[in-house]
Write a sequence for this structure.
């Protein structure tokens, strides 16, 4: 019962963040800035999951719920602050969180949420830095360095640390290379988190996890 209540609170909180993202966009901030509000909000929700839930069931259910919500509304302007009609980036983000939790939570909850945290905060910080440095949506190196720094800090939640750090590097490389304005035209919201998971999971087992 207590975990069901936590799930309801997190759902309401993230929906509130979505509304704030819409409002930021409505105030004429660039789309790639307003969408980071949603990224950071999602990151908070993802980050508290290992603290609130004892099993993977509720985290997976929440991820699936938001995946279905975003998939059902992706052709509309309901969430114009972070999603564009027909664009599947946020659907891909939710899918990557669901896959990561399903694949790794039972191994280590922090490992299960780490790809989502990388995406929420690492990619989020990179977008803000690129906005102030380049004033346009571009995969500049300053943004990538900011992404790596944020991910390296988040990686402290995974032990041994070098496993998380390897995931941080993998995520940053994939985020840099993939996406609409990257060299590889694969959605970085899906490619970067799952690539980091594909690096961390075997390393975690090799480290005796």
């Amino acid at each position: 019962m207590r975990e069901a209540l936590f799930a309801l609170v997190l759902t309401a909180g993230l929906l509130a963040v979505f509304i704030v993202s819409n409002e930021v966009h409505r105030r004429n901030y660039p789309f790639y800035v307003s969408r980071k509000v949603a990224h950071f909000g999602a990151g908070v929700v993802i980050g508290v999951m290992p603290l609130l839930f004892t099993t993977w069931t509720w985290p997976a259910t929440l991820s699936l719920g938001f995946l279905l919500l975003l998939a059902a509304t992706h052709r509309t302007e309901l969430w114009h602050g972070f999603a564009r009609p027909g664009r599947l980036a946020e659907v891909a983000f939710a899918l990557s969180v669901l896959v990561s939790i399903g694949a790794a939570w039972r191994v280590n909850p922090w490992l299960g949420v780490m790809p989502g945290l990388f995406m929420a905060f690492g990619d989020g910080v990179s977008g803000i830095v690129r906005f102030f440095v380049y004033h346009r949506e571009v995969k500049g190196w300053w943004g990538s360095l900011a992404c790596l720094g944020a991910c390296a800090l988040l990686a402290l939640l995974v032990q041994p640390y070098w496993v998380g750090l390897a995931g941080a590097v993998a995520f940053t490389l994939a985020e840099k290379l993939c996406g609409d304005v990257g060299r590889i035209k694969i959605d970085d919201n899906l490619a970067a988190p799952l690539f980091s998971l594909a690096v961390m999971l075997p390393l975690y087992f090799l480290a005796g996890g």
